[in-house]
Amino acid sequence: MLVAGLLFSCMNVCVKWVSHLPTLEVVFFRSSFSLLITYLLLKKKRIPLLGNNKLLLTIRGATGCLGLIGSFYTLQNIPLATAVTLNYLSPFFTALFGIFIARQPLAPKQFIYFGLAIVGVILLKGIDHNITLVDLLIGLLAAIFAGLAYNIIAKLKTSEHPLVIIFYFPLVTLPFVGAYSIFHWIQPAGIDWLFLLLVGIFTQGAQYYMTLAYQRANLSKVASLNYMGVIYAILFGYIFFEESLSIYSFLGIGIILTAVLLNIQVKKNV
Predict the structure, then answer these.
(1) Which of 5, 49, 53, 153 is deepest in the core (most CB within 10 A)?
(2) Which of 223, 213, 224 is nearest to 262 (CA)?
């Protein structure tokens, strides 16, 4: 999950650098790359493409598609600090939905730990009060759909190979974003092509490691580790976008790490 978080953070930076391109066009490039690479890997390993539970796999693809579009939209249209803050609310919804979908209850104290983590995220990155209500709602919906997608991944852990689950993501996404992109196409130029390629590479690696994590471990514990990606975002924000760290940022890092460690200590049988 730590590797997945690092790769997702690299992807965030690349998405931010192509903010002048339509969101769904960026999603189109990301999905095309993922579909091709996953298809080749499945063929090489001689794994059936369409899996066993086609309904759940399709729902996973649809929820992942909506979550990805919302996430890319916030990264492109609002300050990086606020976008990352909203995106990293998804572990909260993952654990919350996990109570009902994956049948993984939370201990009462785990709600406190997740609350601490959210406070840490807010302190770490801050909230931009200048964003519109629409931007805020899109960011929250992206986190909600991501939480649903992660729960479905957990439900599929006994019946599907990780690559099959990843394959359904672009398989469901491409027809929708492709149809939109045909009528709203903006031709990428120069270094745009490199950033779009890197979005695909980073996301493919992140999706694989994230899928393994959600299949092999308790949802609430994996979701808490997702918050570590905020620390990656802080470092990249400083390096690439000259974002300085305040005392609140350092305090947020400490709170997030504390919440993550406390959550991991909760017994597996809770």
Answers:
(1) 153
(2) 224
Question: pLDDT at position 54, please?
Answer: 92
Contact in structure between 201 and 33 (CB atoms under 8 Å): yes
Nearest to 173 by CA among 63, 38, 90, 19: 63
Distance CA 56, CA 58 (A): 5
pLDDT tens sequence across 79-108: 777 777 787 778 778 888 888 887 778 788
For residues 182 and 267, the model is more confident at 182
Q: What DSSP state is assigned to residue 161?
A: -
**71 SS3 class:** helix
Contacts of the segment 196-200: beta carbons below 8 A, 24+ positions apart: 196/14, 196/18, 196/26, 196/29, 196/30, 197/33, 198/10, 198/11, 198/14, 199/11, 199/14, 199/15, 199/18, 199/26, 199/29, 199/30, 199/33, 200/29, 200/30, 200/32, 200/33, 200/34, 200/37
**Sequence ranges of the domains in the chain:** 2-106+129-217
CA dist., res. 143 & res. 129, Å (int): 19
The pTM assigned to this predicted structure is: 0.79
Query: Which residue blocks in the chain are alpha helix, DSSP H?
Result: 2-17, 23-44, 54-77, 80-87, 90-98, 108-125, 133-155, 162-183, 192-216, 219-225, 228-241, 247-264
Which among 269, 205, 197 is positioned nearest to 32, based on CA atoms?
Answer: 197
Q: Which amino acid is at 179?
A: A
